[in-house]
Design a protein that fits this description.
This protein is α/β, with parallel strands linked by helices. Helices cover 47% and strands 14% of the residues. It has 8 helices and 8 strands. The strands form 2 sheets. A 6-stranded mixed sheet has the order 6-5-4-1-7-8, with helices on both faces. A two-stranded antiparallel sheet has the order 2-3. Helix 1 packs across helix 2 and helix 5 packs across helix 6.
Length: 195
C-alpha cells in the first residue's frame, strides 16, 4: 500500500524519536499546507510541508502531526477520511487506519477531529513548537485550542502554552545528515550526473 519501502518509514520513526529526546515535556504540531486551485476544479501540483514530510513521509494534504515525546500516544496524526467518491477524482487516500499502520504513528484520527482531540493532547505540556503565520486558518484553530487548554487546566497558575518556532527546531535536525540520508544524496547526485 505504501509507496515507500519499510526502511524509509523506519527512518521517519527514528527522526521522530531523535527529535523527541530534545523536546521532552513539550509538544510539536506540524500542519500540511492547503491545496491551491489553479482554475475551476484544477489544483496546482501539491507539495507537502518539508518538515511534516521529514518526520512522517506522508504526502497528503489536510494532514497534521502532533508529537508528544514521552506521552501515550506519542505520535498522533490527523488525516482525511477514506472516501471512494473523492478518490475517483482526487486520487488515493490512506485514511486514518492505513495511515496509522503504514506510517507507524501511535494513533491516527480524521482531520475533522483535530480541534476536539488536541485539547486533551496538549494538557500538561510545558511548551508548544508550532510555526505561526504560514497558514492563517490553522493559526486561528491553534489559538482556540490553546485558550481551551488553558481553561481546561483550571486554576493551576499556568496561562497559555508558550509557542516556539517549530521550523527553527527542525532546522537543527535537518542540517545534520544521517548515513542513510548521505547515501540517498550520493545516489541522487550519481543519477543527475548520468543524465
Amino acid at each position: 500500500m505504501s509507496r515507500l519501502p519499510n526502511e524509509a518509514i523506519d527512518l521517519f520513526v527514528q527522526r521522530r524519536k531523535a527529535l523527541g529526546r530534545k523536546i521532552q515535556g513539550s509538544a510539536l504540531i506540524l500542519v500540511a499546507p492547503p491545496e491551491h486551485i489553479r482554475n475551476h476544479d484544477v489544483h496546482y501540483h501539491y507539495r507537502q510541508s518539508s518538515s511534516l514530510y521529514y518526520l512522517t513521509g506522508f504526502e497528503e494534504p489536510e494532514s497534521i502531526l502532533v508529537l508528544r515525546p514521552g506521552m501515550t500516544p506519542e505520535s498522533v496524526m490527523f488525516v482525511r477520511r477514506k472516501d471512494a467518491e473523492r478518490e475517483t477524482w482526487d486520487g488515493f487516500r490512506y485514511g486514518p487506519e492505513a495511515t496509522q499502520s503504514v506510517f507507524k504513528v501511535d494513533q491516527c484520527y480524521p482531520i475533522d477531529e483535530f480541534e476536539a482531540r488536541t485539547i486533551d493532547l496538549l494538557k500538561g505540556m510545558e511548551k508548544l513548537y508550532y510555526r505561526q503565520a504560514l497558514h492563517p486558518e490553522a493559526d486561528e484553530t491553534i489559538q482556540r485550542i490553546l485558550v481551551k487548554v488553558s481553561k481546561a487546566q483550571g486554576r493551576t497558575g499556568m496561562g497559555l502554552l508558550p509557542v516556539y518556532d517549530a521550523e527553527d527546531l527542525l532546522g537543527e535536525f535537518r542540517v545534520i545528515k544521517t548515513e542513510p540520508e548521505i547515501a540517498n544524496l550520493r545516489r541522487a547526485c550519481q543519477i543527475s550526473a548520468e543524465t
